[in-house]
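User: My collaborator and I are trying to settle a disagreement about how two of our proteins should look. Neither of us wants to argue from intuition anymore, so we agreed to look at predicted structures for both before our next call. Could you fold the first one, then the second, and keep them clearly separated?

Assistant: That sounds like a sensible way to settle it. I'll keep them separate. The first protein:
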Amino acid sequence: MSTNDDLELAAWRTAAVALAELTLEEIPWNDPDRRGLTSFLSELRNDAALIDQYSQWRRRFPKLAAGMVHARLRAAERACRLAGGREGV
């Protein structure tokens, strides 16, 4: 993977984790979708599974995956400006 690919992957992971965690906060504890979201979060924390998940999302939901990356990178740029130039995703 190139540096740009690594950056996109890290940005997507951050956005996907946030989205899954927010969804888990909102759905009832007995919702059957919790199991799938919990499994998804576990995969995002495993590097090999993460790459596979990101590849699947890019194939199945290309606009959503690109939007998640773009939004996270923009948020990192804003945070960097507010922090006086420190970088981070």
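The second protein, kept apart from the first:
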Amino acid sequence: MTFSNITDVEIVAKKMLKEHDNFMSGWPYDKEVCDRLITAASFGAQAFAVCPIPDARPSAMLRALLLALVDPTHRELDYLRKSNMVRVAE
């Protein structure tokens, strides 16, 4: 997909937000979209948590989130998979 202008970005963002809101509300939602969003958000949160430079944390978070939206198996995300700084309670 090529974004010819900001409107294209807004359309995609609105679709993602709608699916996430539907998921959170218990309404019918696109499972594939929501799974990808949650995975990307998790990578973003992990990148923010492990970034050693406080001023760079938002950029690290955004890059990880976008990269995970494109390809959650990308090797550049491996350092986040290996990190144990943030873990979900089991």
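Some points you might bring to the call about the second protein. The two ends are 38 Å apart (CA to CA). DSSP finds four helices and no strands in the chain.
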